[in-house]
Amino acid sequence: MSCRLAARAVLPRPSAFRLQHENGQQQLCRRRPQLLAASPSTPALGLGPLVFQRGVVSKKGWSTAPARSKHRRFNQANSGLPALTTGPAAALLRREKTTPLRTGVLATKTGMTSMFVGKTRVPCTVLQLDQVQVVANKTREKHGYWAVQVGAGSRPPRNVTGPLLGYYEAKGVAPKGELAEFMVRGAEGLLPVGVQLLPDWFQPGQYVDCRARSRGMGFAGVMKRHGFAGQGASHGNSKNHRTMGTAGPSQGSGSRVLPGKKMPGRMGNDWVTVQNLRVMRVDNELGIVLVGGPVPGPKGRLVKLQDSKKRKPPGLPHRQRSLDQLLERHPDAEQALEAARKRHLEMKEQRLARSTAS
C-alpha cells in the first residue's frame, strides 16, 4: 500500500527514513530532522507519491551531481595572500612586499666593458648618470600611491612648453630632458625636491633591476621575429619557404584570427626589464655605475635603474648613510623649494598682469 506524505519543507535524504509496522500497516517515519506536516485546515497541494532515489538536495530538486564548491584557488586562508578585490588599495597591498624601499635613478647606457673578479672576467654595462634630480613626490593621500619623480639631463627652455616650464619653475629645477616615476613602499622612501642623486646611491655588490627599450630591428618576418621553422625547400613548395602559412581561422575560434596571433611585424623597441644585475662598481667623479651583464637597448638609450624586487635591498647602514650624505649635500632643500614656489607665484601674477594690460 503506497503512502502519501504531505510536507511543506525540503525533503531530507532517503537515509533519514525508515519503515515501521504499526497495527499491521507500514508507515513512514523519520529519524532527523522532523517534517512539518500540513495541517487539516491547509491541505498540501501538488504533492505526489513519495519516491526514494539517491542524490543530494538542491533548490531545484534532487540531483545526482555533487554539491558545487566555490573556487578558492586565489583566496585560501592558508595562502597568506590578501583578499582579491578590484580596488587600488588591495592592489597596493598585494605589491607591498615587492615594491622597493628607495627610489631609482635615470641613467644613459654608454657601452660595455669588462672587469675581473678574481680570475673570472665579467662583462659589464656602463651607465652614466647626468644631473639626476628629484623633481616631485607623490603621496598616497593625494595621488593614491607613493612615488618619486626623477628627472635627468637638460633641455633648452625654448624646447619646453609653457605649462611644463611653470611646473619646473615651481619646483626650482631646471628643465629636464627626461622624467620618470619610481614607486616606493611608503613615505620613508620620499626625498626632498631638488636633491641630486649620485652613483653612490647604490652599493657595490647589491642587485638592481634595469628597464629600457630594446633595440628596434624594423619589420621582420615570422622566422626572425618568432622563431618559426619555415616551410619545405622543395617538393611542391613555391615561393613560400619563409612564410607563416595559414593563420588558423575556423579552428574552434569562431572563424576568425584571434588577437595576438604571431605574424610578421615590427620587431624590437619594446620595454624590457632585466632583473637581478649585480652592481660591480660606482664612481662619483665619473658619474658612472657598472652593472654585471647586458642591459637592453643600444648606446645612448635611457635606462631606469632601481633596487631589485626579488632580492634583498641594501642593508640599513648603507641606506641610512646614503640618505645622510644626500641631506648633507643639500641642507637647504626645503627652504629652496618654498622660495621657488613663492617666486613662481610672483612671476605668474606678473605674467598675468602683463597679458591683461596688452
The amount of helix comes to 10-25%
How many beta-strand elements? 15
Mean pLDDT: 83
The outline comes out as globular
**Might you state the CATH topology name of the domain at 100-218 and 268-357?**
Elongation Factor Tu (Ef-tu), domain 3
* Annotated CATH architecture of the domain at 100-218 and 268-357: Beta Barrel
Category from helices, strands and their pairing? alpha+beta
Order of helices and strands: EEEEHEEEHEHEEEHEEEEHH
Spatially, the strands of the biggest sheet line up as 5-6-14-13-10-15
> The biggest beta sheet, please?
6 strands, antiparallel, barrel
Cα-based radius of gyration, to the nearest Å: 35 Å
Distance N to C terminus:
108 Å
Low-confidence runs of at least 5 consecutive residues: 14-22, 28-40, 42-59, 69-76
Strand content: 25-35%
